[in-house]
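Case study: Pollen Ole e 1 allergen and extensin family protein.
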Amino acid sequence: MAVHSFERISSLFLFFILSSIFSFGASTRTITNYTFSIGEATVKDIKQSIERNQLTSRQLVEFYLGEISRLNGLLKGVIEVNPDALLQADAADKERKCKLPGSLPDLHGIPILLKDTIATKDKLNTTAGSFALLGSVVPRDAGVVNKLRQAGAIILGKASLSEWADFRSINAPAGFSPRSGQGKNPYVLSATPCGSSSGPAISVAANLVTVSLGTETDGSILCPASFNSVVGLKPTVGLTSRAGVIPVTPRQDTIGPICRTVSDAVYVLDAIAGFDSNDEATRPASYYIPPGGYKRFLNPYGLQGKRLGVVRDPFFKTIGLGLVQTFESHFETLRRLGAIVVDNLQIYNIDVILNVTASGEAAATIAEFKLSLNAYLEDLEVSPVRSLADIITFNLKFPDLVGPGNLLGSRSHKWDWCTGEGSIIKLGNLSKNGLEKLMRDNELDAVVTPRSDASAVYAIGGFPAIIVPAGYDSQGLPFGILFGGLKGSESKLIEIAYAFEQATMIRKPPSFKP
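Here is what the predicted structure looks like once written out:
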């Protein structure tokens, strides 16, 4: 759960690594008497192959473990592999034999990687990429993990991230943590993978896993999804439980899928959304969930009649002529598919919203961070650290085990709670007079912007957004198109994103350019 606002301040380039020992490209393996391409396969593809006895969950997990062994030394997208992953796969295969075809949940027997802020009560660590939490013992599975287990998903392991969900320093490289090293963008290795959910995005983009789960405070799902040519879905705050997830601020933190396709993201969302007694925010948000879940909104005609507002200023000023032309083409596609595109709209006070200091987002988040992190640490059964102060002491004592920059929380005394509370009120007014007013006055179903640059608009109000691959620049670096809306509008956003995706089919496997 990162405050990606700080990533928006500067785009950091990563360390250059080039390896000639890897053979890149779509991976194909012979399963029984068939040749089945697991690389780029969707959940639906995999389920059909399993039902046709072309594939087992064990073979699927073995394939991904092989790909992680082959590629992770370069990409650093995975921190830990679950030593019990194959046992879980065997259990799924055994259970499938006892059930009627089609009677099991969509994620049954499907491997998933979890960002290393999402607690699992098993042999895996939960550390936010920091050695300070290595060896800590969580009291229970995170709420979303409990739901994933109920859905029959296989917990393949923990994905890497920007350390402490990108909240330790404004100078820390995106995608870096001491435990994992520097995560690499599989399309252009020298470019940023963005963060803080870099590992989940890297891993699904490079076909190291079927689906993944990330977290976002401001841009940490949307930005890595954009830079790694995958789909990122940031749910309404409270639609998915934050219980058992290393926090930044409960006011903005949310948990969502990062996958290769919109349909896969929806399968994951259906599995994890809903009430959790350990997160009170899920109680009101659960009323947003439509009867039967979100899968029925995977409608290729979902753009018909939708009113979409295009906000150009300031987002089109920084993307370059080539990308502007690409988005003009996308807007024509939206119109052709039946959408009503309302162009050149303005979000009131957008420059303030995008400035983490002026908006009050930084002050409010830092004030809440210390309280929420201390509460998480105090709840651990075993931990080398029990407070933010302990973490700061650890970092000073063991500098060789710490990433670059100072933990922001060490300066949290500069923002007292009264300052934070005033900032929260300001953020509420910015949302009310900004996105909410824009959508109400123009009767919009969604707002459309390039890349993930508008993430703060949705972050400060707890609003949902989804990003879909939209193209590749002249260097081969991916970028996405972002659709966002008001609380509880996931159904509309899924229809819009899925229809766009199916009409364009832009995503392609990574190229691993240096």
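For the exam, be able to explain this: Confidence is low (pLDDT under 50) at residues 1-34, 408-415.
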